[in-house]
User: Fold this.
Amino acid sequence: MSYRLLRILVAVSALFVLPGCWNSKDIQNMAYVTAVGLDYDDGNFITYIQVLNFSNVGRSENIEVGKTVPVWIGRGVGKTISESFSSIYSTSQMRVFWGHVKAIVCSENMLKRGVREAFDAVNRYRELRYNLYIYGTNEKLSDIFVQKSIFNLSPLDTLMFTPEQIYAQRSSILSVTGNRFFSEINEPGEPGMLPSLAINKEVWKEDTKDKPMLQINGAYFFQATKMAAWLSEDELAGARWTQTKLKRCLIHVPLSGKPIAAIVLNRPRYSVKVRFDKDEVKYDLKVRISGYLDELLQDIPITDLETMAEDVVRNQISDSFDNGLAKKVDVLQLEEHLYRDHPKRWHALHQTQNLSLKPGCIRNIDVKINIVNTGKYKEKQE
Assistant:
């Protein structure tokens, strides 16, 4: 037998002892989880998973736009998060895959109880990523997970999964990822803000049929890992100017009475200086925002519009601070700056209280708005 023939026989024999892909699974035979819901009631953890058939939501020319996309929701109950998830496996019929989860939604009961235990369990799943969007809600989690987008597109096209598309046109309370949220609630001085999801049934119709849509209607604030308060979007109108990633937000001037103009503001720059007046802590706030004129109902110089817009933003910031103070939360992130710049003073103030802010602790709110564009019309400057 020649040496060349012997090598061929050895190679062919090796093929019969290879193990092959015994553990492989066909992608169509797996249940892909896209969102997770966490609830707590009467000593039990209640978990929800949203499962989609990706053959129905994939982008292809064969998919009929407007065709209803079915959503499957699994519900589990257990004394621990792991036990609750395992109870779903027993009836799933298919292997559950967690690598496509993009959002986690927590009920108010879960937020009030505390989120550390729940998210410690969730983050131990190796398939789950750290940059998932996270929300709170007082709606039923099963109702949240069945909401479709416009044209009956899948839940993957809703605000819960793709908030950036909405923020490009209107941004007020920005979504937050899980890693960012946990870094906030675990860090002293951080307020820990979590957007709240709601179902709005009043805006959209399909022909004459009401079509509910998801909406961010406010935010939850935390003390350590437990929910401390909820404030509506209107109550947080001034807090949005502390968010440097804010892309586009509309205001009317003046703040009350008949509007004379609508101005779009974007990309605020927010800074805080901590001052001390004897034993009291004072804060100087500075906000710089650029914008453009969106609508003008009365002929008025641009410089006057800028001054009126500055008054609107200044009043909104002051009102939001008062709204937060009434519920004992720091919506303007003032204590974070105290902790960063003067940690010893922060620790001394927090030995006997959770919140050191008091009425009148904001000494000055310096707002400057620059209208850089008036659209296709030229407006007078003075």
In short: The longest strand covers residues 261-277. Residues 102 and 132 are 5 Å apart (CA to CA). Residues 302-326 form the longest helix (25 residues). The chain has two domains: 29-233, 236-382.
